[in-house]
Amino acid sequence: MAHAGTLSINQLNKQYTVKGETLEILENVSLSIAPGEFVSIVGTSGCGKSTLLRLIIGLEADYQGEILLDGKPVSGTSLERGIVFQEHRLFPWLTVEQNIGLALENSTLSDQEKKRSIQEHIELVGLAGFEKAHPHQLSGGMSQRVAIARGLVNRPEILLLDEPFGALDAMTKYKLQNELQHIWQTEGITMILVTHDVEEAVYLGDRVVVMEPRPGRIRRIVPVPLARPRQRSDLEFVRIKEDILAEFGINREERKAGILELAA
Fold it and tell me: Do β-strands 190-195 and 38-42 pair in parallel, antiparallel, or remain unpaired?
């Protein structure tokens, strides 16, 4: 089992310069995430939630404030921090095991240890038997499982998920949500999920961070004190979900019509 990281974000501010003008993206974002916690982040397009993930993973360095993992400043990308994007980004000419193995190129593990870790994570995401398959032979959900395995194979302290199920059909999405919860419980690491889907955020998260846009700020943090496995029809589950949807002006009629995702 991997070590679970402690993430501390303190008074984070981020700007871009567009045509000579400063565009505020994130403003005074502070958030502490405990080891092994699953935190969901929701918000409409433009609230900076994906930018926040890019800063945590180390893809960008130009910001004000602090991002600390286990008390140490985040600097560049690292094997301690894994990420899964909405698009699986698999290389079509590589097999499942080769795509997962790419994440181990900079690892200090021996070849035998790498092989063992790849196989363990193929089995963890339910793809045993597909080791030699190429991406065109996989469904969208299976391809995302490969991406999740690739993000986990280094046994990072924290895994970041940026709309990982956003392009999938509803039934596949529900199945992978269940599998992601199982993986999180099995691996014991810290996870941060960015999503437009409020129901998904409540189903998976220990807490839901609600962000508002332009510039991106944390509006509120909603605890989800529900036992797992969770039932989507449970009255308290529905209450928490509707409470969050109301933050974005989605009324009861729209909720009855099944509008659970925020505008992209």
Answer: parallel
**Contact yes or no for 147/163 (Cβ under 8 A):** no
Please report whether residue 107 resides in a domain.
Answer: no
What secondary structure letter does DSSP report for 136?
Answer: G
- Count other C-beta atoms under 10 Å from residue 170's C-beta: 8
Query: Which pLDDT tens digits describe the chain residue by residue (264 residues)?
Result: 567 889 999 999 999 888 888 889 999 999 999 999 999 999 988 889 989 999 999 988 889 999 999 999 998 888 889 999 888 889 999 999 999 999 998 888 899 999 999 999 999 999 999 999 999 999 999 999 999 999 999 889 999 999 988 878 899 899 999 999 998 998 899 999 999 999 999 999 999 999 998 899 999 999 999 999 899 999 999 999 999 999 988 655 555 555 556 655
Q: Are 206 and 38 in contact (CB under 8 A)?
A: yes
Helix, strand, or coil (residue 81) = strand
- Return left, alpha or beta for 36; rule: phi > 0 is left, psi -120 to 50 is alpha, else beta: left
Query: Residue 120 domain-assigned?
Result: no
The total number of structural domains that make up the chain: 1
- Cβ contacts of 116 within 8 Å, gap of 6 or more: none
